[in-house]
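Key result, reporting period 2: structure in, sequence out.
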């Protein structure tokens, strides 16, 4: 069952200005605080999103990261064993082979 975050709109009680309530997704949102019966509003809570931080994490997750090095030249900083380290404009043989990385 998810937790929903609420905030008092007028005064606070011993639950504090903001508080959490465990409710079913099918329950109606609270209009009043369960402790003091003052009006409350439901908040949109922040979520934690984890993103890869390093090139090796990106590589392990199957991503390809290209960094511009010169006009028309990109370095593949997540190159795998048989991939070219540099990708050059007009040379398709230097492009990463995505069919080896992406599968159905």
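The corresponding designed sequence is given below.
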């Amino acid at each position: 069952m998810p937790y929903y975050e609420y905030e008092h709109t007028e005064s606070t009680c011993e639950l504090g200005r903001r508080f959490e309530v465990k409710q079913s997704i099918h329950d109606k949102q609270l209009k009043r605080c369960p402790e003091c019966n003052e009006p409350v509003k439901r908040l949109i809570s922040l979520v934690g999103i984890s993103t890869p931080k390093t090139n090796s994490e990106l590589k392990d997750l199957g991503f390809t990261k290209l960094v511009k090095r010169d006009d028309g030249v990109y370095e593949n900083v997540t190159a795998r064993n048989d991939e070219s380290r540099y990708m050059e404009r007009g040379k398709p043989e230097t492009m990463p082979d995505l069919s080896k990385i992406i599968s159905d």
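Helices lie at 55-60. The chain has two domains: 3-42, 55-99. This case is discussed further under Risks and Mitigation.
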